[in-house]
Amino acid sequence: MSNRHKELAEQLLTVRPTTRDLVTSVLMDAWPGHAAVVDFGIDSDKHFEALYYPIRAAEILPKALDAALGHGEKLTALTRQAASNPHKDVQFHTSWDLIFGRESAGRSPSDRSNGQHHETSKAPVQETERERDWTMER
User: Shortest CA distance to 99 belongs to which of 48, 39, 47?
Assistant: First the structure.
């Protein structure tokens, strides 16, 4: 077992149940539960594969996933940085993005309803105080 895979196993014990479900599902070649699908914005097979391969290669570790849970732009950034992601163009959006009023750059509410996808901005993602509180409670 590589050091990265050992780190993955150790981190798996410290993350939220939804994150643990996603990682263990990937490691067992299974589809994750509904909560993981919603909270990680898995809208298609491409979204799943963009997470699947980097998780299996230990390029995306559980703590990083846990920190990005519910945040589409963070999930998009994580997967785009992973060498084994076969779908670098996939953009993640979650229900939590809508709840917290986060709109992806270049994507209006009308785009969401008609399925158009646009490139996200390269600007750093900043959390609001309310989002940090929600993340800590979850």
Answer: 39
Per-residue model confidence as pLDDT tens digits over 103-129? 764 454 444 444 444 444 444 455 666
Distance CA 107, CA 91 (A): 11
Residue ranges for the chain with pLDDT beneath 50: 105-106, 108-124
Kindly report the number of other CB atoms within 10 A of residue 71's CB atom: 25
Q: How many whole angstroms separate alpha carbon 82 and alpha carbon 5? A: 15
Render 65-110 in DSSP notation, one character per residue: HHHHTT-HHHHHHHHHH-TT-S-TT-----HHHHHTT---TT--HH
Q: What is the pLDDT of residue 106?
A: 41
Q: Is the pTM of this model over 0.85?
A: no
pLDDT at 115: 45
Q: Which residues contact 128 (CB under 8 A, 6 or more apart)?
A: 100
The first and second tokens of residue 81, run together, are 């940085």
